[in-house]
Design goal:
Strand order of the largest sheet: 3-2-1-4-5-10-9
Helix content: 25-40%
CATH superfamily of the largest domain: Vaccinia Virus protein VP39
Order of helices and strands: HHHHEHEHHEHHEHEHEEEHEE
Distance between the termini: 35 Å
Strand content: 15-25%
Largest sheet: 7 strands, mixed
Length: 313
């Protein structure tokens, strides 16, 4: 294991102690004040902002290849041959590439709202020495927070069946025999859908008012029993504390000068989103990493939320 991987997965400090220290600091109090202004979001502006972002970082060096994926999500390493993975918000391919590299028979569908990102990801994957990467990497443009995934991932009939099952699963109302019969009949429509969804540092870039739709869309394209792997910015992460008061656009939600967004998850906010969509919680915890910038002699406290969620059988 490389030093980079070891550092990335360490539990270097206690999150509760960090929370107490941050909340006791009067200079950071503005982060926790109620936010009353309504955030206005635009899909076109989101895509445009991310296009500009990826154009500025066109070398692909801005993001490092996420080699920790198979350690944190070992199900990817032990998955069956020809399993299908949907990487949502693929960026420059830093998640898709190690998955393709780690499993020679896995098929990766990768989407992003940014056409620039998809171009960079395709260039990087095609230039790699990964076995049959060109035939196993399927990029497509999609903003999963505003529109459905394409029908070729899962047909409309199966998608509606999936959402019906979710609603029945969440409801306390007793199912009658006609409901059960209709669901069983439509189950045989096709074998569409993916085995895994990866949502790695993507959901935080979605406006808060669209997150629920986005998570539900991920639920709809998973096969029954399929897993969603989640990793994103956690509450009190160093990045959150760097935002100024005028960059707040919502509670725990911020906007950078380039128009891109970032939301910072607590375990509770992540749990509520995924359980409301119909998922079962498998794992959910904070990942706390302390890193040192030797040049500036500065210690940085990074916080991420790690989660695994399963679609009911």
């Amino acid at each position: 294991m490389s030093g980079e991987e070891t550092e990335y997965h360490s539990k270097d400090f206690d999150w509760e102690e960090l929370r107490q220290r941050i909340e006791d600091d009067p200079t950071l109090r503005y982060h926790f004040l109620p936010f009353t202004h309504q955030s206005v979001s635009s899909s076109a502006l989101d895509s445009q902002s991310w296009n500009h972002f990826h154009a500025r970082h066109s070398t692909g060096k801005f993001f490092k290849e996420r080699r920790y994926l198979f350690k944190e999500f070992p199900e990817l390493a032990s998955c069956e041959e020809h399993s299908k993975v949907l990487e949502v918000g693929c960026g420059n391919g830093s998640t898709a590439l190690p998955i393709l590299r780690g499993k020679e028979n896995i098929l990766v569908f990768a989407c992003d709202c940014s056409s620039e990102a998809l171009e960079r990801a395709t260039e990087i994957v095609y230039a790699s020495n990964v076995v049959s990467a060109k035939s196993r990497f399927r990029p497509f443009c999609c903003d999963f927070s505003t529109c459905r995934f394409p029908e070729w991932l899962i047909c409309d009939s199966c998608r509606e069946t999936s959402l019906q099952k979710r609603n029945i699963f969440l409801s306390d109302v007793k199912r009658d025999l006609t409901d059960i019969t209709s669901l069983k009949e439509s189950d045989e429509c096709c074998v569409g859908g993916v085995d895994y969804v990866t949502l790695i540092f993507t959901l935080s870039a979605v406006p808060l008012d669209r997150m629920s739709t986005a998570v539900t869309e991920c639920f709809s394209v998973l096969k029954p029993g399929g897993l969603l792997f989640f990793r994103d910015y956690g509450l009190y992460d160093m990045t959150m504390l760097r935002f100024e008061a005028d960059q707040r656009v919502g509670f725990r939600e911020y906007k950078r000068s380039d128009g891109t967004r970032s939301y910072f998850f607590s375990l509770e906010s992540a749990r509520n989103l995924f359980l409301a969509a119909g998922f079962i919680e498998v794992e959910l915890e904070y990942c706390c990493v302390k890193s040192v910038n030797r040049r500036k002699q500065k210690t940085m406290h990074r916080v991420w939320v790690h989660g695994k969620f399963q679609k009911p059988m």
